[in-house]
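Please decode residue identities from the backbone states below.
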């Protein structure tokens, strides 16, 4: 039964006049009359005795008024309790992510969310997409930020409106730093360090096409920070996401963009039909609302 209609009914009973009640409720008189008639139809009883100067209740209406008052009072009480509960939301929100630009966006959203609910805490786990997905599937991590391509059929997701740029990481004293960009042909002649994720490796290999047989892959790494150490130690040149290098020591290693440029997107994911804590549920609602507003 619609609580809103019960409130309509009680307002009419209190005012003993449909016109006055419609003014208080800010709806038209015909609309209010239709709602009351439908209520009587649904209940299968007559609730009102309608007269020119006003209305009064039938015996059934008097009984229903008592029950309607109890239902509305209970609903209002539940609403107050939930509102009070929200004021004391606490707990941990677990986010898994790779090293990318998109992490800044989610961190910014978390901090603004924390202003509303200061008792929430952030647990940030860094790993590649396969690790993050496994943690989500096992219920260890609530929300993940994944670099595409990635299979997301079993997750609810939001595609983030941020482009992640692929770059070539190299030593700061490397002659290629004189170039404005690095081509696929350039890379085909160099020792390469690439990601361990097979889906991304497949994507990278598709870039090289006719140069595939010439590639010299000397190492792989699941995190860009470790790849930068390999580059510094002169192991090779790493293909990484530009957003993974915010604290890069450019006196030791630096990077150049690829040409043609290569970009990818990231997605925010969480497990479908997964029961979450109130803190996580509210955070998901918060980020969906804010990201939808930004996209518009």
């Amino acid at each position: 039964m619609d609580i809103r209609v019960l409130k309509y009914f009680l307002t009419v009973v209190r005012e003993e006049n449909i016109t006055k009640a419609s003014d208080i409720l800010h709806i038209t008189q015909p609309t209010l009359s239709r709602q009351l008639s439908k209520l009587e139809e649904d209940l299968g009883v007559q609730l009102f005795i309608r007269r020119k100067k006003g209305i009064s209740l039938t015996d059934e209406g008097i009984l229903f008024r008592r029950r309607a008052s109890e239902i509305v009072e209970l609903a209002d009480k539940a609403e107050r309790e939930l509102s009070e509960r929200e004021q004391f939301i606490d707990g941990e929100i677990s986010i898994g992510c790779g090293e990318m630009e998109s992490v800044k966006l989610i961190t910014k959203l978390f901090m603004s969310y924390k202003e509303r609910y200061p008792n929430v805490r952030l647990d940030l786990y860094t790993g590649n997409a396969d690790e993050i997905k496994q943690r989500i599937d096992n219920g260890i991590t609530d929300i993940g930020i994944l670099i595409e391509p990635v299979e997301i059929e079993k997750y609810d997701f939001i595609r983030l409106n941020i482009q992640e740029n692929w770059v070539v990481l190299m030593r700061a004293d490397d002659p290629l730093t004189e170039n404005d960009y690095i081509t696929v042909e350039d890379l085909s002649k160099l020792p390469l360090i690439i990601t361990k994720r097979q889906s991304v490796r497949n994507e990278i290999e598709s870039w090289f096409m006719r140069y595939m047989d010439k590639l010299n892959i000397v190492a792989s790494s699941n995190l860009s920070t470790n790849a930068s150490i390999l580059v510094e130690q002169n192991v090779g040149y790493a293909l990484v996401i530009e957003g993974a290098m915010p604290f890069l020591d450019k006196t030791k290693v630096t990077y150049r963009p690829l040409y043609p440029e290569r970009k990818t997107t990231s997605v925010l994911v969480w497990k479908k039909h997964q029961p979450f804590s109130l803190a996580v549920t509210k955070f998901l609602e918060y980020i969906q609302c804010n990201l939808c507003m930004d996209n518009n």
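Observation: The two ends are 36 Å apart (CA to CA).
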